[in-house]
């Protein structure tokens, strides 16, 4: 991780350079996941349903409507999730609270890991239904290319989302350098102003000379009496 601050990001309040952001491995994986989800969604919506001798449309995956619906769901939600995490990644450095950064990283770990599993299920489900599809169900091989594209890019999505999960775990394990944050950043309260220090190392050093003199002075000398001269 290139960041020096909390959870792999820069110091709190810093801004992200768009070019640097675009070159990050996490951004590249996110962009690939967005493209793969778009392909899965568009392939099924555009050519995933065929009309075989009737006005009713059938799913190309063994006429199983659940397979097409599941693929459309994965592609659509994957697009929205990638867009959300794109924005979160770009704004991550500007998050001033350590607790909020930790919550964002944990959210990414949970969702990316869960979505990796769902894409694995999608790949197995679509591949299984496609293997059971007979040529008679797809005259002139209608929708075959779309079905193969949905299966292939579901598999590619497993890799990219797994990579995003690993990157999120790395950010979480990196933790935070608490010296980069004030009390205000950590708990959202007002920063506590320290009292001025009188130690020799402090910047505001007040030196006072202590001198005590007794309020009354006692004199043991005998009083003198002068005889008047006539």
UniProtKB/TrEMBL annotation:
The chain crosses the membrane at residues 31-50, 70-88, 109-130, 150-169. It is found in: Membrane. One of its GO terms (cellular component) is synaptic vesicle membrane. Residues 188-230 are annotated as: Disordered. Keywords: Membrane, Transmembrane, Transmembrane helix. It is a multi-pass membrane protein. It comes from the Eukaryota. This is Synaptogyrin. It holds the Pfam family MARVEL. Residues 195-223 have a biased composition (Polar residues). Residues 21-173 form the MARVEL domain. It comes from Seriola lalandi dorsalis. Belongs to the synaptogyrin family.
């Amino acid at each position: 991780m290139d960041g020096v601050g909390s959870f792999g990001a820069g110091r709190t309040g810093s801004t992200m350079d768009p070019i640097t952001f675009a070159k990050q491995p996490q951004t590249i994986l996110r962009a690939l996941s967005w493209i793969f989800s778009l392909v899965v969604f568009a392939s099924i919506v555009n050519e995933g349903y065929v009309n075989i001798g009737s006005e009713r449309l059938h799913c190309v995956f063994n006429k199983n409507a659940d397979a097409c619906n599941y693929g459309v769901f994965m592609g659509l939600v994957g697009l929205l999730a990638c867009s959300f995490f794109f924005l979160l990644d770009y704004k991550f450095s500007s998050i001033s609270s350590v607790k909020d950064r930790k919550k964002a990283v944990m959210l990414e770990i949970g969702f990316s890991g869960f979505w990796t599993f769902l894409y694995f299920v999608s790949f197995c489900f679509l591949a299984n239904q496609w293997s059971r599809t007979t040529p008679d169900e797809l005259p002139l091989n209608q929708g075959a290319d779309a079905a193969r594209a949905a299966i292939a890019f579901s598999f590619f999505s497993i890799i990219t989302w797994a990579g995003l999960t690993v990157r999120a775990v790395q950010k979480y394990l990196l933790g935070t350098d608490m010296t980069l944050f004030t009390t205000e950043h950590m708990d959202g309260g007002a920063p506590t102003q320290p009292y001025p220090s009188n130690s020799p190392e402090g910047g505001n050093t007040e030196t006072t000379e202590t001198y005590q003199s007794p309020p009354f002075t006692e004199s043991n000398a005998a009083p003198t009496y002068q005889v008047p001269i006539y």
